Backbone:
């Protein structure tokens, strides 16, 4: 059975019968239910033009995310504090720590890495603030990381700057677990944050501190670095191209993270580059993808590779949703939003501190 743009080359989120109608109606307010116009910019265009594209995209999508987040109320009984962690390059990495106000005893911690293709977005964006607060309300300590981006207002800092910031925060949480009231640590993020989540596992393994982390939960991970290729093994790249995100946009953001392409085979840059040997022995993983996402199949492919490598892993497909759609519509699709956050929380609570020795 042909689906998406295989069935109709002109298909959009608004016309695809698989799409959740609540999501379509919410996107229609911003004109995002139809076809995205071409960017018209090549991945080898002058880097200044690509930086300008990223900044404009950050501003435009930021306005959409702000509007969506404004209709999602903050949960009761959650407090947030801030701190600054020493970064690897003499920089400070701001962190935002949310927790249930009246929780007792050590809680699992989520080190949360926001989306944006490692190039745009901020942990201070309202959509990520709300996401962390609602995660914390399920009984977790949630640490949002303001890592350096490869573009946008927090850039330009290409690989490995952002990943190194995320690693510094993960190790800081581990070192301060008693002070923070943390029992064990799970790393979680969506889209570019999903790539950072998975590549952080490889970095920690290489450097010998993987035992400090109990698990990894990646949502709609952006990991293949193959978005402009003809990929028979990743049909969703064509099937869902232009549904909220396009392969052209994905490739342009990726070109800022690794501008000269010297890290295409490095599993700490792009998780999908990991060899089978590099996957062996990793802690438990969950890979959650969206049915109507160009990135769906690269996430599922990674999940299957984890299983073949003997890693405890769960794969999850959120039907009817576009890239990250289960996390964007807390007020429009509260059941879907809650289900995804509760799955992250349930995974974190299912693990113990045994592996990490905490």
Residues:
């Amino acid at each position: 059975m042909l689906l998406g743009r295989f069935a109709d080359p002109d298909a959009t989120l608004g016309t695809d019968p698989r799409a959740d109608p609540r999501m379509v109606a919410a996107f229609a307010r911003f004109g995002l239910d139809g076809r995205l116009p071409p960017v018209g910019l090549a991945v080898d265009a002058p880097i200044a033009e690509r930086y300008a594209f990223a900044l404009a995209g950050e501003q435009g999508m930021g306005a959409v995310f702000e509007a969506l987040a404004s209709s999602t109320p903050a949960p009761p009984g959650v407090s947030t504090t801030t701190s600054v962690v020493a970064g690897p390059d003499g920089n400070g990495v701001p962190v935002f720590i949310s927790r249930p106000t009246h929780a007792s005893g050590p809680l699992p911690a989520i080190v949360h890495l926001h989306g944006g293709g490692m190039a745009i977005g901020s942990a201070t964006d309202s959509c990520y603030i709300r996401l962390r607060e609602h995660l914390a309300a399920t009984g977790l300590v949630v640490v949002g990381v303001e890592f350096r981006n490869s573009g946008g207002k927090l850039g330009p800092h290409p690989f490995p700057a952002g990943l190194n910031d995320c690693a510094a925060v993960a190790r800081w949480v581990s070192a301060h677990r008693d002070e923070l009231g943390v029992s064990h640590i799970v790393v979680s993020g969506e889209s570019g944050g999903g790539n950072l989540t998975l590549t952080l596992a490889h970095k920690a393994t290489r450097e010998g501190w993987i035992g400090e982390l109990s698990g990894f939960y990646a949502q709609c991970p952006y990991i293949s670095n193959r978005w402009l290729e003809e990929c028979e093994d990743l049909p969703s790249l064509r099937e869902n191209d232009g549904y909220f995100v396009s392969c052209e946009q994905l490739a342009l953001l990726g070109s800022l993270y690794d501008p000269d392409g010297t890290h295409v085979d490095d599993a700490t840059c792009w998780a999908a580059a990991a060899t089978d040997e590099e996957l062996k022995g990793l802690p438990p993983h969950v890979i959650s993808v969206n049915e109507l996402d160009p990135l769906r199949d690269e996430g599922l492919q990674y999940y299957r590779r984890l299983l073949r490598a003997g890693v405890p892993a769960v794969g999850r497909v959120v039907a009817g949703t576009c890239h990250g759609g289960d996390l964007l519509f807390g007020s429009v699709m509260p059941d879907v939003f809650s289900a995804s956050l509760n799955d992250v929380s349930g995974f974190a609570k299912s693990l113990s501190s045994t592996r990490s020795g905490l």
Q: What stands out?
A: Strands lie at 78-86, 92-100, 107-113, 141-145, 182-190, 215-219, 285-290, 313-318.
